[in-house]
Amino acid sequence: MKVGIVGAGNMGGAIARGLLQSKALEPDDLYLADIRQELLQPFAALGANTSTRGVDAVAKADVVVIAVKPWIAMETLHKLRPAFRPQAIVVSVAAGVTLGQMRTEAQGLPTFRVIPNIAAVAGQSMTFVASDSASREQEQATLALFAGLGKTMLIPESQMAAATALSSCGIAYAMRYISANMRAGVELGFSPDVAKEIMLQTLQGAVSLLAQSGEHPEAEIDRVTTPKGLTIKGINQLEHGGFTSAIINAVKAAMQVSS
Question: Is the separation of the CB atoms in 39 and 14 below 8 Å?
Fold first, then answer.
């Protein structure tokens, strides 16, 4: 399978790196285009096919990924459509671009709306996929391709806004939580690097524990909150500060913007 990515910025570059690092794609099967030559150089050094012309990225591609800014995504698709192979699959990772909009420009080709998050570069993205005019086999092939970036989930397009708010925006919320804990660690006497190391392992432990046990997070909280203990005092202070409400409101606010 040959993949052409138009746009090597934050998301297009993350997808390209994730596909190469996971070995989901060989460098010679990746075609990457961007008008900024400096963004292409690292991929050229790895053996990928690079060009400053979008048509060069899509002419041989089985899967065409449109990874430009949302406000130019449809214009880009319109300009490049004549160069697509007849059997190509068209994928947009531009937030807010709907399958209905893509259907008009794709002219009958199977289309996919795919929303990864920036953790794709580390092979840990939660990637959401919705399709139009695609067969079951094409859906499975697209899910398998993006599984090289982490976990994939096929969802109705109507859930895309909620998924984006929960996961893509959630990466930033998690970073802010880590940053806040690091600041507290520094105030308690740790260096920033040591505080970061502690927090990363703590979060990895929490994620692994939930994945292994299958329990609701509140059940695990109950296990570590002993009567008159330190943890329950900290938990209650978080709630006095509106921690849970702030997270819920942030996700809902992000959904309103992305829908």
Answer: no
Check whether residue 47 and residue 85 sit in a common domain. Answer: yes
Distance, in Å, from the CA atom of 156 to the CA atom of 255, rounded to the nearest integer, reads 15
> Does residue 55 share a domain with residue 102?
yes
Three-state secondary structure of the chain:
CCEEEECCCHHHHHHHHHHHHCCCCCHHHEEEECCCHHHHHHHHHCCCEEECCHHHHHCCCCEEEECCCHHHHHHHHHHHHHHCCCCCEEEECCCCCCHHHHHHHHCCCCEEEEECCHHHHHCCEEEEEEEECCCHHHHHHHHHHHHHHEEEEECCHHHHHHHHHHHHHHHHHHHHHHHHHHHHHHHCCCCHHHHHHHHHHHHHHHHHHHHHHCCCHHHHHHHHCCCCCHHHHHHHHHHHCCHHHHHHHHHHHHHHHHC
pLDDT tens digit sequence for 46-92? 999 999 999 999 999 999 999 999 999 999 999 999 999 999 999 99
Q: Which domain holds residue 103?
A: 3-155
* Statement to judge: residues 205 and 184 lie in one domain: yes
Global pTM? 0.88
The burial of 64, by beta-carbon neighbours within 10 Å (0-12 exposed, 13-18 middle, 19 or more buried), is given as: buried
